[in-house]
């Protein structure tokens, strides 16, 4: 009885610490998306490194933001509330801006961080220092370490702002990372400073929702715990006579695209391949359909999805 009571007493503070960590992560998500600031940050993927400048202000109830690349292709991404628009001097740079808009540091966490609990375990790690500010590491470790990447956030205890975010593989190798190098809180005062410099533009609209007016052709089952559909579209693609069904799923951090098309032959299977940025692709034939998965998951994660996914016509 004494041993049991002692275990209960020990578990209570541990549970409280875990709850505090999730509460901190929730605050980090809000600060990352809304805190007014002017800053410079680095984005590293493999051996490639880019520098961005971000300016953000609170204009009444609307958050306004402008970020631009300081090296590489010239491009800008402007945010007004939840609306994103890319700007660039030419079409090639505009496409690069669209790719950059997929991950907008520091706002990398979902609005509802509770959904991450299905696929990840949250824990504290050591202290660090980024952009001349102290920070505390919080680690989202996948419940299935081989199938997803670990996400690490170094969070400023004063503002809850993530100062550095690292995506790591199962052996601790860095896949991708973002980090502030200069940070000034308070943001800009005049929204004229947030006007884009380039003329060519591409409106991305509101991201993260199923496109209105488009109903998925299939019910999709067999995805790992925590993944939900965030977008569907019938997409015309080069070299395809018929539209390709494009489903996008997310667990709150990782994103996976599933492409469904009519197979052109029998027994079509393509081994996994991974780009330098940790994005992998893999295909297999299922009956008369060719299924292709693309996502920021390890090879084992893509294999698991491709093996277990089931499509039922609606």
Précis, in short:
This protein is an alpha+beta fold and 314 residues long. The protein is 17% helix and 46% strand. The protein contains three helices and 19 strands.
SS field, number of helical segments: 3
What percentage of residues falls in helices of 4 or more residues? 10-25%
Mean residue pLDDT: 87
- Side by side, the strands of the main sheet go 6-7-8-9-10-1-2-3-4-5-11
Largest sheet: 11 strands, antiparallel
Order of secondary-structure elements: HEEEEEHEEEEEEEEEEEEEHE
Shape: globular
Q: What would you report as the Rg, rounded to the nearest angstrom?
A: 21 Å
Unreliable runs:
1-12
Number of DSSP-assigned strands: 19
Secondary structure class reads: alpha+beta
Q: Which percent range describes the beta-strand content?
A: over 45%
Amino-to-carboxy terminus distance: 56 Å
Q: Would you give an account of this structure?
A:
The protein is α+β, with helices and mostly antiparallel strands and 314 residues long. The chain is 17% helix and 46% strand. An 11-stranded antiparallel sheet has the order 6-7-8-9-10-1-2-3-4-5-11. A 6-stranded antiparallel sheet has the order 13-14-15-18-17-16, with helices on one face. The chain has a two-stranded antiparallel sheet with strand order 12-19. Mean pLDDT is 87; it is low at 1-12.
């Amino acid at each position: 009885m004494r041993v049991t009571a002692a275990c209960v007493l020990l578990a209570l503070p541990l549970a409280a610490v875990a709850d505090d960590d999730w509460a901190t992560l929730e605050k980090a998500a809000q600060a990352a998306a809304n805190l007014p600031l002017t800053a410079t940050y680095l984005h590293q993927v493999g051996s490639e490194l880019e520098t961005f400048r971000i300016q953000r202000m609170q204009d009444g109830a609307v958050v306004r933001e402008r970020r631009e690349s300081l090296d590489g292709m010239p491009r800008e991404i402007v945010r007004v509330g939840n609306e994103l628009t890319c700007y660039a001097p030419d079409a090639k740079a505009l496409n690069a801006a669209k790719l950059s808009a997929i991950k907008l540091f520091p706002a990398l966490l979902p609005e509802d961080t509770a959904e991450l609990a299905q696929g990840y375990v949250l824990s504290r790690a050591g202290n660090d220092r980024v952009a001349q500010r102290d920070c505390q590491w919080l680690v989202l470790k996948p419940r299935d370490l081989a199938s997803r990447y670990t996400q690490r956030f170094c969070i400023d205890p004063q503002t809850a702002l993530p100062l550095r975010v690292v995506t790591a593989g199962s052996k601790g190798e860095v896949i991708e990372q973002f980090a502030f190098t200069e940070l000034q809180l308070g943001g800009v005062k005049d929204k004229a400073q947030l006007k884009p410099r380039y003329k060519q533009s591409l409106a991305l609209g509101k991201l993260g929702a199923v496109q209105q007016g488009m109903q998925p052709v299939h019910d999709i089952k067999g995805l790992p715990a925590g993944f939900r559909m965030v977008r569907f579209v019938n997409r015309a693609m080069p070299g395809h006579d018929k539209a390709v069904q494009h489903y996008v799923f997310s667990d709150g951090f990782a994103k996976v695209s599933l492409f469904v098309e009519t197979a052109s032959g029998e027994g079509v299977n393509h081994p996994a391949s991974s780009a330098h940025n940790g994005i992998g692709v893999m295909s297999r034939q299922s009956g008369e359909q060719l299924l292709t998965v693309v996502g920021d998951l390890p090879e084992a994660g893509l294999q698991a999805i491709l093996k277990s996914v089931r499509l039922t016509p609606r």
